[in-house]
Design goal:
Layout: H1 2-24, E1 27-30, E2 39-41, E3 47-49, E4 57-63, H2 68-84, E5 89-95, H3 101-111, E6 117-119, H4 122-127, E7 135-139, E8 145-150, H5 154-169
Parallel strand pairs: 4-5, 5-6
Antiparallel strand pairs: 1-8, 2-3, 4-7, 7-8
Helix pairs in contact: 2-5
């Protein structure tokens, strides 16, 4: 009898967690203020400091290998990267995986992700207010967070392209 209550509790907890996650999906938030700075190494050992990238439009993609919508978004991000990288646009993949760097390296290689990937500390994710995955943060040329989007869908993919174009077009 106790086992069935435990299973029911587990199932209800899972349903509640998924339901709350879906409520966040596609949520856009306009944010003002400077983006929290960081200096971290990519999975390839290259050091990246956000403060040195001012003058570019930055997209921080908080994701994980086990996240279905994250996996769905990556081909779109790769295309956005290829289209706008010559126009002062940079994507940084912020992996939230805790399974080790080799897991992430293998995934990045299998997906042929061309932009830098960082294993992101939980403290940095908190600084950016990450509450669900994927979370996309848009940072303008002056280093200000301009928008945060939680989740991914085809309509969000179109919004991302429009936002990138808008931010690239802005004068410094």
């Amino acid at each position: 009898m106790r086992r069935s209550y435990s299973k029911i509790f587990l199932i209800l907890s899972l349903i509640l967690t998924l339901g709350l996650g879906l409520l966040q999906c596609g949520k856009k938030t306009k944010v003002e203020g400077l983006a929290p700075d960081f200096t971290l190494k990519t999975i390839e050992g290259q050091e990246i400091s956000l403060s040195t990238l001012k003058g570019n439009v930055i997209l921080l993609d908080f994701w994980a290998t086990w996240c279905g919508p994250c996996r769905e978004s990556i081909p779109h991000l790769i295309q956005i990267h290829k289209t706008y990288r010559e126009k002062g646009f940079i994507i940084i993949g912020m992996s939230m995986d805790r399974g080790g760097i080799d897991l992430v390296r293998h995934f990045v290689k299998s997906m042929e992700i061309p932009y830098p990937i960082i294993i992101t500390p939980d403290s940095l994710a908190r600084n950016y207010g990450v509450t669900g995955l994927p979370t996309t943060i848009f940072i303008d040329k002056k280093g200000r967070v301009r928008e945060k989007i939680i989740g991914f869908s085809s309509s969000i993919a179109k919004q991302m392209v429009a936002r990138v174009e808008e931010l690239i077009a802005e004068k410094e």
